[in-house]
Amino acid sequence: MNTTAILLPALALIGWTLLVVLLVPYRRFRAVAARRVQVCDFALGESANVPADVSLPNRNFMNLLQAPVLFYALCLMAFVTGYVDAVSVVLAWTYVGLRLLHSVVHIGYNNVMHRLVCFASSMMVLAVLWARLALHLAG
Is the pTM of this model over 0.85? Predict the structure, then answer.
């Protein structure tokens, strides 16, 4: 298998992260224009005056910069070591799909239990990816 195949899910998640970050100024500008908030409400991040629908894209963006760092490191390590097989690529795409679903739930209707299922599932997939890589490197 071509080792670059493991980089495609990483690039997809980076692309998704960049799309999510575009929602941040979009929602903020709309809220200011509608006089739901004032510009000063964003002076130090987001004040308590910022409505949830305006702050959710920023929260989700921050979330996409947390656990996925482990995914990016894994993809690079798998690529560098040449340990890329079909199972790893499928698991990587599964991880990305679950992260996208998590974002859609979070920014969309924001059901905490649905978010939890998406997040926990993605973390389990990530743990399996790391375990497979660790076993390969150890053996």
Answer: yes
